[in-house]
């Protein structure tokens, strides 16, 4: 037990990097630097969510391998970043992140019990479920909502499908940064550098998948402002990384499979966005979760696709 306590800082670091399936401490360090570069509140609340989720899993007796590998912390990271983004830096947000991270930890264990027999990972589903519940229910609680309005995408004030060169190159990096809800290109670049420490294939998968999201969004006529903000790239990024080397072997056919997954996640993004918009919900990483589950569930009956050995 004392050894686990002493390793808790490493578990926390890995919890941050496991948002994108990585355990390298250098990747985690870059991710944390990127969050603080975006704003101190994102770094602080992201770490708060990671620590609470990790400690909750440890106290409740989750497998030490999962806790030390960061697999119990990454949903807490995203919960912390998302809730401070939606509810600002207030004392009530601190309490909300703590409660939500605990809920996310319990839900992670519940989903593991349900999905492990089917060889499916929980991914960011606990984060999506808890954050959606918090955000959709917030208007009923005055101390949470406090006169806030539903968030709108960049296209609400800058509509139009005429894409500029700035939309393209900034959208490429923003598609990576938006995994952590950050829409500043240099923050996305720092995240990309972090992925490069984990391996060139991981960084390439992220960069190519972000580009795929942009191309698909342009072909379908999405708003240029949303493309430039990376809103059509980040679910493709997560899906591409998941299906290219993380859970699926990177063969020629496997790469085509990952590409199809990234395209599917991009297309599904608009559907999820429009589905949640009337009730004030957000797209989050739901497209990535749904598409990746479907593509991984199909692998056992596809003789040309192989899972990465666990």
From TrEMBL:
Annotated site residue numbers, Important for channel permeability: 285
Annotated transmembrane regions: 28-61, 67-87, 94-115, 179-198, 205-225, 231-248, 255-272, 284-305
Keyword Cell membrane: yes
Membrane topology, from the record: Multi-pass membrane protein
Pfam families: UT (PF03253)
Compartments it resides in: Cell membrane
Chief location: membrane
One Gene Ontology cellular component: plasma membrane
Keyword Cell membrane recorded: yes
Single GO MF descriptor: urea transmembrane transporter activity
Keywords noted in UniProt: Cell membrane, Membrane, Transmembrane, Transmembrane helix
Family: Belongs to the urea transporter family.
Name recorded for this polypeptide: Urea transporter
Organism per entry: Nonomuraea wenchangensis
């Amino acid at each position: 037990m004392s050894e686990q306590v002493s390793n808790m800082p490493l578990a926390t670091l890995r919890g941050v990097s496991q948002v994108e399936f990585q355990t390298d401490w250098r990747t985690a360090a870059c991710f944390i630097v990127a969050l603080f570069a975006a704003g101190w509140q994102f770094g602080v609340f992201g770490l708060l969510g990671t620590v609470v989720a990790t400690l909750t899993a440890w106290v409740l007796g989750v497998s030490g391998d999962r806790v030390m590998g960061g697999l119990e912390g990454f949903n807490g990271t995203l919960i912390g970043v998302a809730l401070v983004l939606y509810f600002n830096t207030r004392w009530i947000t601190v309490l909300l992140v703590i409660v939500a991270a605990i809920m996310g930890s319990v839900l992670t264990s519940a989903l593991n019990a349900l999905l492990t027999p089917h060889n499916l990972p929980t991914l960011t589903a606990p984060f999506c479920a808890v954050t959606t519940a918090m955000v959709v229910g917030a208007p009923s609680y005055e101390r949470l909502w406090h006169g806030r309005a539903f968030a709108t995408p960049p296209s609400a004030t800058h509509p139009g499908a005429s894409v500029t060169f700035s939309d393209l190159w900034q959208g490429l990096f923003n598609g990576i940064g938006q995994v952590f809800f950050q829409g500043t290109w240099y923050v996305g670049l720092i995240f990309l550098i972090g992925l490069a420490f984990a391996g060139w294939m991981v960084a390439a998968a992220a960069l190519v998948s972000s580009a795929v999201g942009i191309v698909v969004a342009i072909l379908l006529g999405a708003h240029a402002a949303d493309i430039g903000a990376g809103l059509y790239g980040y679910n493709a990024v997560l899906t591409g990384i998941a299906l290219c080397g993380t859970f699926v072997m990177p063969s020629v056919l496997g790469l085509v499979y990952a590409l199809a997954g990234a395209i599917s996640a991009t297309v599904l993004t608009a559907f999820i966005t429009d589905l949640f918009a009337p009730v004030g919900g957000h797209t989050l990483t739901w497209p990535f979760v749904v598409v990746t589950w479907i593509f991984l569930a199909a692998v056992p009956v596809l003789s040309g696709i192989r899972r990465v050995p666990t």
